[in-house]
Design a protein that fits this description.
heterodimer, A: alpha+beta, Penicillin-binding protein 2a (Domain 2), Beta-lactamase, 3 domains, 7-stranded mixed sheet, 5-stranded antiparallel sheet, 37% helix, elongated, B: 367 residues, mainly alpha, 72% helix, 4% strand, globular
Chain lengths: 633, 367
């Protein structure tokens, strides 16, 4: 043990061991330094980057959807509002077996076949990361039952949401429109208008009518909440909040009670009615019959209801008042008469002798008057009262197409009225250019003749007719019609009346206007084509009947309503304003396949005006008894 | 009646305790409890449970410290043999859990690989000490075999973290015993050459871990999630940290395994670079003390054992912090003295008990 060599050996070994230990220690120090360097890199150099990542992890921005503005009628009656309810929503991306999930849910809440169909349709149209409603308006029992079973359905949630509701249903649906779920096309549009941020969290957007055209005001400004969330996405607490600004409430120009009265007056007929306050362009009633229930469209319509609406021969989705284009028929005559007077082609005393037809020089074609044998001697006043066709055939020929186009165009025919909802059609006021462009043909003298009585190429929407009537009632002052009267800004709580469009006065001679208007009053008096409309009224109604042909009648034939199938019968038209001396309402009525204007459309006008001016509610309709007064176009 | 002399009891208690080593350990363990209390979401029960684990481990440490190095050396062969037997038992009859066969049910479920963390350096140190006079290449070959067999069995379980630590422990013994640089280089070259073979032997999840290390962003929600979230926790801690209980990554559940393997991320997020440097310093002091003990140890056995235990402890700490900070692959290695868990705490402290035994018995011999 004590031999020196061994001791030295041990010493040397110890030395060698310590040398190796030193190397290991140096390695450890080096590696710890490396770690310290790494910590410095992460926690100092890269601090901002990781801090941001941690904050992004922690904080999510949750949009707070503003309440959509209400829509009220001019008297404050609610036409569109929101209510809070629960929906059962499915996030498709989190579901593996959709069918099994829905079947499972159906054991807890009532899920009808139509709900399934509607959901499937939504599924096809949607961005798949959003949650889609399978059932809306759950009752308390259903909410409780699902809540107890929620763990069985990952990806399914109950959401408390505001629902849009149109309490009046079909009434004014074509004017109010509706909202619907945001689809791809809407997204593109939002993207283009750079409104996308404001729609984070919004599921719905205005699709039609006022809901669409005033989307910006109704939607409001989306608020945001900074929420601390955990890794599972559960909100822990709210860090900060920018409150949403509710959408503005719209007050419409519509009078919903007037709308109701007018709607009822149509009974089973299809058609349209537009009533305008001629003094300011406010649309008082806007009807397209039949209507549809806008509530069906809010969360996607189920295919059965959709097919029923879309395939119905009555075309309830068609906005006849705004988009329906009909020949104005004889309602065109007062404007023609004014054109004759203003352009010096007619004087009040000028008369024609009406043989019951009109022929162009050198042509045997008979342009027939509605009255076989004619009306005898006819001056301008009488031509309106009895609606003489021959007078206007000749007048049209004397005026020529250019004069007609230029003069009548001033009353809004052939162009959009500019009403504040989208989708308006222009109608058609034919011109030489139009015919060349459309048919590559020059204008023939014969083309002008039927234009004179509102037939031929002529087309107008009921809205245009009402607009033209309002201009006439207002002695030639043109005021753009509009549906929104005022906007209550939810942010500032200030009522902003819609700026009335600058009225444009047409240069018309008062005496000419006076004559035409006098004749229109006589239309609703005994001897006029719509004598029944004015009968017993304590105010004067100025009006004009009209008939729009649906099918052409041969030269030798006479139109007999009973021989023509119902849908090929003439459309009845009536334009009117009242009281004639101080017009408060101007309206146009179209009754599809209603026959003569005076007999079907006229009485509707009377009911509407009676209610509007006198507050008279019409009695429930009684079946007609006895002979109907013979009335003609 | 026997008169109780407090001084004698104190002496009896502390005779084989190295106070420096103990104080560094206790400081680290205190940090461990502080972090754990936050990481568990201020769960007092779990924290007290860990305190209990520590007490048990301290008692075990004390007991081992009282065993003389000579007796430790005597125990080397039986302990190693038993461990090897149990490992074979695991391979044949072990319980499978989470896709790994690591446990053996002998009335209680035990994890023999844990025991091998100490048994392997003990065995190698004992073996090399026996051959001290005639140490040659053949002896090193036998020693390598003694290392490779248990490591191989543990790799097969599979348990990458443990086999790595045991390999390290064995390697340190060989290195300190004076394995020639040339052979080590040769081993490294062989290792490099056999990488493709090893790669083919690895389980898919192990390969994934290595691939994920190279580019965590490849699979940000899957395998890379741990690394990314722990890097965010670390980095967002900044210089002074977010404060105790204020780690958002921790408390909003973004950090996985935050009481065990990833507890360092919790610490780093809440105490920042400053806290990390303090932790590194404490580890360095502890390791330094261990190396001093090794350097002063009187026999080759005790030198090799003390050196290996200390350097393995360093490896533990380095690998864990390295993986949490994203410079090493995610292998299941806890942060020594800090991570939650009783077994590893006991193993670690038994190791420190051996160090203390080496240190204090040397003193006794000298005095």
């Amino acid at each position: 043990m004590n031999r020196p060599t061994e001791l030295r050996n041990t010493q040397r070994e110890l030395y060698y061991f310590r040398w190796r230990l030193g190397i290991a220690a140096a390695g450890a120090v080096l590696l710890f330094t490396l770690l310290a360097g790494r910590f410095f890199f992460l926690q100092v150099t890269q601090y901002e980057y990781f801090h941001t990542l941690a904050e992004n992890n922690r904080i999510s921005i949750v949009p707070v959807v503003p309440n959509r503005g209400l829509i009220l009628d001019r008297n404050g009656i609610v036409l569109a509002h929101n209510y809070s309810a629960y929906t059962l929503e499915i996030t498709p991306s989190k579901i593996q077996d959709m069918e099994a999930t829905i079947n499972g849910l159906a054991t807890l809440v009532d899920i009808q076949q139509r709900d399934r169909k509607r959901f499937r349709r939504l599924l096809e149209e949607s961005r798949n990361f959003e949650s889609l409603p399978i059932r809306a308006r759950l009752n308390d029992i259903e909410v409780a039952r699902f809540a107890a079973n929620r763990f069985r359905f990952p990806g399914v949630d109950i959401k408390a949401r505001l629902f849009r509701h149109y309490p009046k249903g079909e009434l004014a649906s074509h004017a109010i429109g509706h909202i619907g779920r945001i689809n791809e096309a809407d997204l593109d549009q939002l993207e283009a208008s750079e409104d996308m941020a404001n729609y984070r969290g919004s599921d719905h957007i205005g699709k039609l009518g006022v809901e669409q055209s005033y989307e910006k005001q109704l939607h409001g400004v989306t608020g945001f909440e900074q929420v601390e969330t955990d890794a599972g996405g559960h909100a822990i607490r709210t860090l900060s909040r920018r409150a949403p600004v509710s959408g503005s409430d719209l007050t419409l120009t519509l009078d919903s009670r007037l709308q109701e009265v007018a709607d009822k007056a149509f009974e089973q007929y299809r058609g349209a009615l537009v009533a305008i306050d001629p003094k300011n362009g406010e649309v008082l009633a806007f009807i397209s019959k039949p209507g549809f229930d806008p509530n069906l469209f809010i969360d996607g319509i189920d295919p059965t209801s959709w097919d029923a609406l879309n395939n119905s021969p009555d075309k309830p989705l068609n906005n006849r008042a705004l988009r329906g284009q009909y020949p104005p028929g004889s309602t065109f005559k007062p404007f023609m008469a004014l054109a004759g007077l203003e352009l010096g082609k007619r004087t009040p005393s000028y008369t024609i002798s009406d043989p019951g037809f009109f022929t162009l020089p050198g042509n045997s074609h008979h342009y027939r008057d509605w009255k076989t044998g004619g009306h005898g001697t006819v001056d301008l006043y009488k031509s309106i009262v009895i609606s003489c066709d021959t007078y206007y055939y000749r007048l049209a020929n004397d005026l020529g197409p250019d004069n007609i186009f230029n003069f009548i165009g001033q009353f809004g025919f052939g162009k959009k009225t500019g009403i504040d909802i989208e989708g308006e059609t222009t109608g058609l006021l034919p011109s030489r250019e139009w015919k060349m462009k459309r048919y590559h043909q020059k204008w023939y003298a014969g083309d002008t003749i039927s234009v004179g009585i509102g037939q031929g190429y002529n087309l107008a929407t009921p809205l245009q007719l009402a607009f033209a009537t309002a201009i006439l009632a207002n002695n030639g002052t043109v005021i753009r019609p509009h549906l929104v009267r005022s906007i209550l800004d939810a942010g500032t709580n200030q009522v902003r009346t819609m700026p009335a469009a600058k009225p444009v006065a047409l240069a018309l001679k008062p005496e000419n206007l006076e004559l035409v208007k006098k004749a229109m009053i006589a239309v609703t008096q005994p001897g006029g084509t719509a004598a029944r409309v004015g009968a017993g009224a304590p105010y004067l109604i100025a009006g004009k009947t009209g008939t729009a042909q649906v099918i052409a009648i041969k030269q030798t034939e006479k139109y007999v309503a009973s021989r023509v199938s119902e849908r090929n019968r003439d459309h009845a038209l009536f334009i009117a304003y009242a009281p004639a001396d101080d017009p408060k309402i101007a309206l146009a009525i179209l009754v599809e396949n209603g026959g003569h204007g005076g007999s079907v459309a006229g009485p509707i006008a009377r009911v509407v005006i009676d209610y509007f001016l006198l507050g008279k509610v019409p009695p429930p309709p009684v079946p007609p008894v006895g002979a109907i007064e013979e009335e003609h176009d | 009646m026997i008169k109780i002399d407090p001084r004698r009891i104190w002496l009896w208690l502390t005779a084989h305790i190295d106070s420096l080593l103990l104080s560094f350990m206790l400081m680290l363990m205190l940090i461990g409890l502080i972090v754990l209390y936050s990481a568990t979401g201020q769960d007092l029960a779990q924290t007290t449970g860990q305190m209990l684990n520590m007490l048990v481990a301290l008692v075990a440490m004390w007991a081992v410290a009282n065993i003389s190095p000579q007796n430790l050396a005597r125990a080397a062969l039986p302990v190693y043999g038993l461990g090897l037997l149990l490992l074979v038992g695991v391979a044949l009859f072990g319980d499978v859990s989470h896709g790994a066969r690591r446990w053996l049910n002998i009335g209680i479920r035990i994890q023999p690989s844990e025991m091998m963390k100490l048994a392997v350096p003990l065995m190698l140190a004992w073996f090399l000490d026996r051959r001290e006079k005639t140490l040659n290449l053949k002896d090193f070959g036998i020693a390598v075999l003694m290392l490779v067999v248990p490591v191989g069995l543990i790799v097969k379980q599979p348990d990458l973290g443990t086999s790595l630590l045991i390999s390290a422990a064995g390697f340190y013994v060989l290195f300190l015993a004076g394995l020639s640089w040339r052979i080590m280089l040769g081993l490294v070259a062989m290792g490099a050459a056999s990488t493709p073979i090893l790669w083919s032997l690895l389980h898919d999840y192990q390969r994934q871990r290595i691939l994920t290390l190279i580019d965590p962003s490849q699979d940000p929600l899957g395998a890379g999630y741990h690394i990314i979230q722990s890097s965010i926790a670390l980095g967002s801690g900044g210089i002074f940290g977010k404060g105790w209980f204020n780690g958002t990554q921790t408390h909003l559940d973004f950090l996985p395994e935050r009481t065990t393997d990833f507890i360092f991320a919790v610490y780093a997020e809440e105490f920042g670079l400053a806290g990390n440097l303090i932790l590194l310093a404490l580890y360095a002091l502890l390791i330094g003390r261990g190396l001093v003990i090794a350097a002063k140890a009187p026999t080759l056995f005790s030198r090799l054992l003390a050196g290996s235990i200390t350097l393995t402890f360093f490896t533990y700490a380095f690998v864990n912090m390295g993986m949490v900070s994203g410079i090493l692959p995610v292998v299941g290695v806890p942060l020594p003295l800090i991570s939650y868990g009783g077994t590893s705490m006991v193993t670690l402290l038994v190791g420190f008990g051996m160090l203390m035994s080496i240190q204090t018995h040397r003193k006794l011999v000298q005095s």
